[in-house]
Amino acid sequence: MASGSESLQKPISKAVQGRQARRREEELLVWPDLVFIEFISALLFMLTLTILSILINAPLQDRANPSHTPNPSKAPWYFLNLQELLLHMHPAIAGVLVPTIAVGALMAIPYLDNTREGEGKWWASPRAKINAKVGAFVGFFGTLLLILFNESKHVWLFEKATTLQWPSALNWLKNTRAIQTEIPWPESIRSISIGEKLFKTELLGLPPINLVLDIPKLLVEQIIPMTTMIGLPIILAVVAGKMNIAQTKRDYAILIFSAFMATWLMLTISGTALRGAGMELMWPWNVKPPVT
Amino acid sequence: MTIEKPAKPSLEERIYNYVMNGRVVKSIIRSGYPNTPRNQMLMVATNVFLHLHPTRINRTHVKITHTFCLGGLSFFMFLGLTITGVLLMFYYVPSVERAYEDMQAIQSTVRFGFLMRNLHRWMAHSMVLLVFMHMMRVFYTGSYKPPREFNWVVGVLLLVLTLLLSFTGYLLPWDELAFWAITVGTQMVGSAPLFGEANRFILIGGYEVGANALIRFYTLHVIGLPLITTVFMAVHFWRIRRDGGLAKPL
């Protein structure tokens, strides 16, 4: 009996244990204090958007014509980050795997960082701001550098700075795709038939599955991008940990989340403002509306 | 000893009392005009719309720089999009033959049609931005911490739903921009290693964006996704209160 009543008195969880009694003097009445602010902010938004709507018309181009592809054809702006990724890797990774993992990772944040550090206040933990800044900086400019590398801008810079030709021995370093095209890979690993070995379809009386493995292509389109996207955040976290910038779970959460959001922002900017006809990289002022 | 007689109420006071404590106003606002703390709390607690709020709130949470009203404004955008969307539905028919002509009519001949369409567009963009910013606010204020883990998950789902709502609406004008944006966007779905082509076929009702895609996106945009979003929003708001309101500093 005694143990039963004890267990009843036990707090349900640490979260409840840590909760403090509400202090009345710290509280305000929702009506009018909060309702007023909500009303004013809604009014301001309505007013701004109405003025915007009177001044700027939503675009309405020519009637859709399936036989006529505009150049470039772009997705809505909030998916241009994925379209930018699509230029650098296998479409299944950029279009499906990355968004799926991103959404899953976002959902997992509270379960990975399950401490109560930094709760309920902006930049509450002592290292919150530095982690956000480092993460955002590395994410933003790291992504920019990767995009520039894949567009061979380091070659352009080298040739501009030294007035020399890019050494042909280093042709495979021009961009990621060059690893596939510029290295004399043996023909035997360019097409490995694995369909018949992997799937014994003849046992089911079905035709053989024609699955051909191209190792250099696989390397460039899948292995290198996946390694980059998984490896660079890990390196960032390890370095930040070694430098004592990140110490707690909350620090790491801020670091990686900030890096991710900055990466996403950079990809969106690049896909929106830096990609013109043929999805070529160019200065924003050279990006013209699509030619139809 | 003289007994002080109460002053005779002035005409204004009598009119005020008659209106504010009269049967009509009392029948709408039972607690009476919210001019005392008691009535103010009752006003919030007994009103179906306002009772999403608690009656009292922590002083720091009222500061505009704590939340920037981002979550509330996202909801406000959803309401505004519903109203402008319903008005647009009066004029818009989701068929390949009529969709584009209807858009032109809305933009040029329907009275205030351009305003409804432009507002709908700007609010949709704003909502995507606001939901993103709301997520960042919740993250940097550490408001996803226990016991609020699940509400964060619901919030991420609402972000995805917001993007899908915006994306399905993108096709409806049936102009070049809409058609090719959806073609490019759904090609990403088709590139999935497993069932990619099958999912794309289900989504656009064929191998190419056409009449079937238009009616599917329209149905999802005006009823399917808003219903799902409403359910998740109800859970989201309910859980804010159940999890103890906005996160407080330790």
Note down, in words, how this protein is organized.
The complex is a heterodimer of chains A (292) and B (250). Chain A has a domain at 71-116 and 129-284. In chain A, 58% of the residues lie in helices and 2% in strands. Chain A has helices at residues 2-9, 14-18, 30-55, 80-86, 91-112, 128-150, 153-162, 176-181, 187-190, 195-198, 215-242, 249-273, and strands spanning 27-29, 192-193, 212-213. Chain A starts with a helix and ends in a 19-residue tail after the last helix. The model of chain A is unreliable at 1-7 (pLDDT under 50). In chain B, helix 7 (99-108) crosses helix 8 and helix 9 packs antiparallel against helix 12 (211-242). With 250 residues, chain B is mostly helical. Chain B folds into 2 domains: 11-51, no CATH class; 63-242, Cytochrome Bc1 Complex, Chain C. Chain B is flat and about 95 Å long. At the A-B interface, helix 2, strand 1, helix 3, helix 4 and helix 5 of A face helix 3, strand 1, helix 4, helix 5 and helix 6 of B. Strand 1 of chain A pairs antiparallel with strand 1 (56-58) of chain B, so a sheet runs across the interface.
Task: Itemize the secondary structure elements and their pairings.
The complex is a heterodimer of chains A (292) and B (250).
Chain A: H1 2-9, H2 14-18, E1 27-29, H3 30-55, H4 80-86, H5 91-112, H6 128-150, H7 153-162, H8 176-181, H9 187-190, E2 192-193, H10 195-198, E3 212-213, H11 215-242, H12 249-273
Antiparallel strand pairs in A: 2-3
Chain B: H1 11-20, H2 23-28, H3 37-45, E1 56-58, H4 59-62, H5 64-67, H6 70-89, H7 99-108, H8 113-140, H9 149-170, H10 176-190, H11 196-204, H12 211-242
Helix pairs in contact in B: 6-8, 7-8, 8-9, 9-12, 10-11
